[in-house]
Automatic annotation (TrEMBL):
InterPro entries in alphabetical order: Kynureninase, PyrdxlP-dep_Trfase, PyrdxlP-dep_Trfase_small
Keyword Nucleotide-binding among record annotations: no
GO cellular component, as recorded: cytoplasm
Pfam family, one: KYNU_C
Protein name: Kynureninase
GO terms under biological process: L-tryptophan catabolic process; NAD+ biosynthetic process
A single MF term (Gene Ontology): kynureninase activity
Species of provenance: Actinopolyspora righensis
UniProt KW keywords: Pyridoxal phosphate
Start and end residues of each stretch annotated as Disordered: 79-102
ATP-binding is among the record's keywords: no
Amino acid sequence: MPLPPLGVRFASPREHSRRGGHITLCRGDFDVVNEELRRRGVVPDFRSPDGIRIGLSPLSTRFTEVHTGMATLAEVAAERLGKKGQDGNAPTDGGFRHRRRR
């Protein structure tokens, strides 16, 4: 399930030249989502009052960590809204699809 149906909005400028090396996602209850993410082992960069900043460092962050973090964010956001995926479970992919490298 993509993040927008879960009430998550993209707060950073869409133009790469204006946004720098990170993006910020916002939702009114991200203060609570932040605490649940930490409980589940994801360490977010919470920005008061309602933002979670995502900035990646290729030297210390693996793709699998990004995928797990975004999937957990989507899962917690869905749980808080009471939404489920098509299979009856909370979404597990954060709405992101990745391709295998050839």
